[in-house]
Amino acid sequence: MSAPRTGRAPWAGLILAAALVAAAVPAAAGPIRIGMVPDAGATQVSVEEKAPLRAYLEKAIGEPVELVIPTSYNATVEGLGNASLDIAYLGGLTYVKAHARYGVVPLVQREEDQQFHSLFITPADAPIRSLADLRGKRFAFGDINSTSGHMFPYLAMSKAGVDPEKDLSYRYTGSHAATVKAVEAGAVDAGATDETVFREMTRDGKADPAKLRVFYTTPAFVDYVWVARKGLDPGVRAAIAKAFTALASGHGDDDKILAILRGKRFVPAGDAEYDQVRVIAGRLGLL
Amino acid sequence: MNAWRSLLGTLAGFFPPDLSPHYLRALLPPVAETIGMTAGAMLLAYAVSLPVGLWIGARLPGTRVLAGLLAGIRAVPDLTLAIFCVIALGVGPGAGMLALAIYYAAALGKVFGDLCRTADPAPLEALRAAGASRMQVALVGMLPLKLRDILSYGSYEFESAIRASVIVGAVGGGGLGAELVGTLNAFDFQRTATLILVLVALVSLFDQLAVVLRREPRWLVALLPPALYCAWRFWPPSASLAHAASAFAGMLPPGLDAAAWRRLPDLVAQTLGMAVFGTALGAAAALPLALLSARNLSPVVIALPVRRLLEALRAVPEVVWGLVLVASAGIGPVAGTLALAVHSAGCLGRLFAESVENVRREPLIAVASTGASGVAVAAYATLPLALAPLAVHTLFRLEWNVRQATVVGMIGAGGIGQALYEAQQLFFYRRMMAYLLLTWVLVVAVDRSSEWTRRRFRWMALAPEEIAS
Lengths: 287, 469
Prior knowledge:
The complex is a heterodimer of chains A (287) and B (469).
Chain A lengths: L8 H16 L7 E4 L8 H6 L1 H11 L3 E4 L4 H9 L5 E4 L1 H11 L2 E6 L7 E6 L14 E4 L5 H13 L4 H4 L1 E4 L3 H10 L4 E5 H9 L8 E6 L7 E4 L5 H12 L6 H9 L5 E3 L6 H9 L4
Parallel strand pairs in A: 1-2, 1-3, 6-7, 6-8
Antiparallel strand pairs in A: 3-10, 4-10, 4-11, 5-8, 5-9
Helix pairs in contact in A: 3-10, 4-5
Chain B lengths: L1 H11 L8 H6 L1 H30 L5 H12 L3 H12 L3 H25 L3 H9 L4 H40 L1 H11 L3 H27 L8 H10 L7 H9 L8 H36 L6 H16 L2 H11 L4 H25 L3 H8 L5 H40 L1 H11 L3 H28 L7 H4 L2
Helix pairs in contact in B: 3-4, 3-6, 3-8, 3-9, 3-11, 4-6, 5-6, 5-8, 5-12, 6-8, 7-8, 8-9, 8-10, 9-10, 9-15, 13-14, 13-16, 13-18, 13-19, 14-16, 15-16, 15-18, 16-18, 17-18, 18-19, 18-20, 19-20
């Protein structure tokens, strides 16, 4: 089609050479990368809202920090495995998986994480009063790997004689916030969600408390935990853990950070706490 | 009925888009990330596909293996490639960039190979006669002869890569895609609407840029330094070949348990159903839109706005329509089918219109001279003449939609795509690989039967430029 032109070929070589240079540039030692739970939606604005947390951690450990909100728990765990994340916030089930796969180290958790609950919610005017009423309804779980948004609600339904596979149609919304909004909007008839997320959303006006009703609360279980990837420098690990446990409610600045983390007090976390989660996850075929 | 009401209710929630300066400013980094990772990816794709294309074009040893490899990569849905890269390289634009680079290296490699084979044989023959090796013929013969075509085709792919970058962003590849999923997750639909507008604007911007570049391909060189910077900037911070290899090894061999085998026929039926019905619905909507927008059938006042509508439908990828429909109504395969139909209507509308515009004029004049009305000419001359290209376009769209049915399935529309995604999310990677293999078989089977159909009816093949996008 085109006339032969000389003098063009070297450019192709240039492109090649340039790409090789690009590929050969070594990865620089970056900031400490911290993975948040994908619960609030991975938006630019939600990272901005967490800026005080970033500033606090930078000051506490004396190194630059980057907050990352992955789009799913799977991405978070794989991030810890391939070292693109140094620290991450995991649910109970994802902790068990990340520990088994990549040997992540539990650091700290909120006091209430040791006695955590899932809430079953439905529109205020809906006829659903108990788990048995869920038969034939449209139901929302959160992320498929969520402890409070999928695993324990699933268990509670099974124990109440409702088989999610046969008795209702369900979907995964991907996050607790999305579950709350899906129920509020009527896109589903009911859903299961994290109690702290639900409380925060109804308090801050992100969801209308008058439109939603809690109709079942699960028995307590162990949930969220902050973890470090296996090879992370123990000094950084200790500094992060100390930064969290040093937070005290009642101090103006600390309160702001605790509000972002939806907690009151942080305590050290250990692997043995998760034995119950391991057993149940295995039984439900999630491991 | 309930589902439809809630769908309409939530769709209304997309208006008005959030155009506040605060949000638009907050969007600058993800927009830059999307453009940057696309530019870096295309540079890497060029760097790989150019030698590969020449190799194939020159039929050097191993061509068959190489071509097979490229075909194999192209049959993997882009979203799946992105997930692989996130697992191997970590979250962020680096994984997205490499996923795009791999996908487009395979796509461009094939096209470049085909282009090289269309080079004028006379000068190549002369080189051979002078004793040049096949490698030398390729480097000093084919490359200079076809460089213009190669560059101009590459610029065309850039626009399509921008759209794809949003798709890979949605699974952890950063940029606008991550933001889009975030807003949908938070039911922040007014911001989703903003993001869709930004995407449409970006795609049309790059469309315009591609037009300029096709006229003056040498300008591409000016894009080299920024692209180079992007490739360096977004290179995965922790890219470790050892981890990538061990992650991949952990996915083998593929395997399904008995329960999964029992579900399989349903899943295949759902995926194929979405592809077939989505294509049919899209084609049905595209035909009247194409007639209304064809320059030789429709007055400009109607044709122009219809063209703009088709552009908008096309600019938003299936998976984004799918995300919107699934998030707002969650109606499974129906949402997937509609998502495929909406995007297909945009693509087929343009291609149908071009086919209608390109029919030979003589038969139309003959029919018109019998005193037939405009509608009669369209019905008895234009459409029958355009039928073969229309059918070919629809078949190509069906092939494409089988891939995309898997992709929209992954975001919640059901079928094999959803099963694949859930297996991946739960770290059941051997199961994921089994579903991937099945997808691959499905895609190849549909491609083959479509090819057979085209040959059986002697429908001519189209240039790749005409079928892309």
